[in-house]
Design brief:
Layout (H helix, E strand, L loop, with lengths): L1 H14 L7 E14 L4 E16 L2 E9 L4 E4 L2 E19 L4 E18 L4 E20 L3 E10 L5 E12 L1
Antiparallel strand pairs: 1-2, 1-9, 2-3, 3-5, 4-5, 5-6, 6-7, 7-8, 8-9
């Protein structure tokens, strides 16, 4: 809960900045999550909601809610289902490569939670923590107000691997 309050406070402070100095944006993305714990890694549909503020052509701050789906590991009928989500705050470095194309990298901090349901023991266990997160991507401008980023984001969890590959739509205010 502390992480959510920190993110909300950060967004309110960003919103109070001079509108001429900051370009605010919001977006929604869909893609695939990859969760790996043990023998097999599984994928599922994932989505995210995010918003941010770009201070200049090379730097932005972004906050996101990511629902990483419910991937299921199946080992000869024994299943483990994961219900994974995260809230992240990112510092985003941007490298413009042309008038309409930007490369970017993100470093951040994420609060994640997951529930794991084991069919063999009929139990559900829950884990949550805060960890380092990073991402890489490319963004294509479609006019002055819209952009389409394609990105890979990795969140450090106590699972062996937790990641999301997505395509998003951004609207700039």
């Amino acid at each position: 809960m502390k992480v959510l309050r920190t993110i909300m406070l950060s967004l309110m402070l960003l919103g109070s900045c001079n509108a001429n100095a900051v370009d605010a944006y919001a977006g929604i993305g869909i893609g695939e999550s990859y969760v790996d714990q043990g023998v097999f890694g599984e994928m599922d549909t994932a989505y995210k909601l995010f918003g941010g503020a770009q201070f200049n052509k090379n730097f932005a701050v972004e906050a996101a809610y990511m629902d990483l789906g419910q991937p299921v590991e199946n080992f000869f009928g024994w299943t483990q289902e994961y219900d994974v989500w995260a809230v992240a705050l990112w510092a985003k470095g941007i490298l413009p490569v042309s008038e309409r194309i930007d490369l970017f990298g993100k470093l951040g901090y994420a609060h994640w939670e997951y529930d794991k349901t084991d069919s063999r023991t009929s139990t559900t266990t829950s884990q949550s923590s805060n960890d380092f997160a990073w991402g890489l991507g490319i963004s294509f401008d479609v006019g002055k107000k819209f952009a389409i980023p394609i990105e890979y984001e990795k969140i450090g969890t106590d699972l062996d691997n937790t990641a999301m590959f997505s395509v998003s739509g951004i609207y700039r205010f």
